[in-house]
Amino acid sequence: MKIYFEEICKKLKKEIKIEDILIVDNSHKHRGHKFFSSEKFHLHLKIRSLYLNSLSRVNAQKLIMKILRNDLKTRIHALEISIEK
User: Fold this and answer.
1) Residue 83: which of 70, 64, 66, 67 has the closest Cα?
2) pTM
């Protein structure tokens, strides 16, 4: 899991200037949900990025989702994104 989260950080940092990123795994909170799968993660990305702050919130989130599009199909079930100043 730690290695996978490092991969996510590398993908994002390759495309976006990011000062800091924290990935919180909230998968345990969703165990009883109908479509829960232990193969997929419920993640919260907490990102500090001057570049992303210069974009609208929608465009910043679209960019992140575009970079992680394959992961969203295969390994991430839910993604919460917080862009901090």
Assistant:
1) 64
2) 0.86
